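On clarity, I found the account of how folds are encoded harder to follow than it need be. What matters is that the chain and its backbone geometry are given together, residue for residue. For the editor and my fellow referees, an illustration may be useful. For illustration, here is how one protein appears when written out as sequence plus structure tokens:

___
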Amino acid sequence: MASDGSGVGSGWVFHLILFLSLAVLVFMQIAVLVKLDKSIDKRSESTSISTFMPTSTPDGKCQRPISVTKEDFGKLSDGRPVDRYTVRNGGGFEVQLITYGSIISSIKMPDKEGNLEEITLGFDDIRGYEFDNVPYFGALVGRVANRIAKGRFALENVTYNLSRNNGDNHLHGGPRGWSKLMWTAREIVDGVAMTLVSADGDEGYPGEVTTDVFYRVTDDNELFVRFQSTTKKKATPINLTTHPYFNLAGEKSGSIDDQTMEIFSDRYLKSDSDLIPTGEIAGVSGTVFDLRRPTLLRDSLPQFNGSGFDITYVVKGPTGKRLAARAYHSKSGRMLEVFTDQPGIQFYTGNFLNDTGRGGHHYRKHSGFCLETQNFPDAVNHENFPDSILRLDSTYDHSVWYKFSVKR
């Protein structure tokens, strides 16, 4: 029987529709797979930067998680609550911070036998930090750390007079400096971030300054601190640092004279009887300040006739992250290395300590040492010192790395 061709035509259309349908289905499946693959990649990226998830080091060892916990730490005398954050890695290394003064209130680390011990000086409760913290135990000090001569400076044709709390001079931001203020805190993936807004006119300083400080703990026992500040309305001097007192033998061990110190610096700032820099930068060679080789503090402290180190060293090397200091306690095996991107580091050996700390323990002279990374003291009054002015269109950015380890 002869055909009119309509069957062939309808069959061709049917197969075309079927082919196109299958093509669309395949395309949709491919799109789903691509989307899923990207989602997995994103989760993988998130996992790689999150220390809450176990990751691997280059040698194949599994990193342990960083935990962050928050608890009440009492109330100030005016009723404001203070929080304490504990940041701990899987090996037991632990850092505690409180929202009053953005204070590092505790650092615990093991010795070569694995015994965990407190290695910073501090208080048991908030009352100690509010009323008795004359030594600035663990404090974040600012707006300008260290001293400003006569509490006075000139900026943009205006003379500013600051509060004075160190004889005739201004020290660590004044009597109500940033170590005496409440900070706003938030948890981050491997630590804590704290924020403060310092009003224009605070302790006599110009400009409204907003500061964020990031405290991060790593799996290999490093505490990384980064300061970032901006100013509104006016330019201002700024120089921030942390002020923990370390004793690598343990907080209750007494004197630091059985610990060695090495400062990676060829030069230091000469200062007057009030510890104000004269402007002269001198070589350490042939002086008691020469710590370019590991030096037992027991051998150097007696040379000060009852005092001790309280001196700013010029950090050796180009700009960027540099090793500034190394401290070591042979009996415990504990070692501390301090890296900084700042031009100076203040080495202080607790020359005026006479305080009652945790558990009623008496902190006497030379019970702890400080390694404060910073710009040069009184830089605002010395043209030959690095610029310390934060301007309206710039950001102050300062990082310090405290690397703790055990030498067996």
Remarks:
- Residues 6-49 form the longest helix (44 residues).
- DSSP finds three helices and 29 strands in the chain.
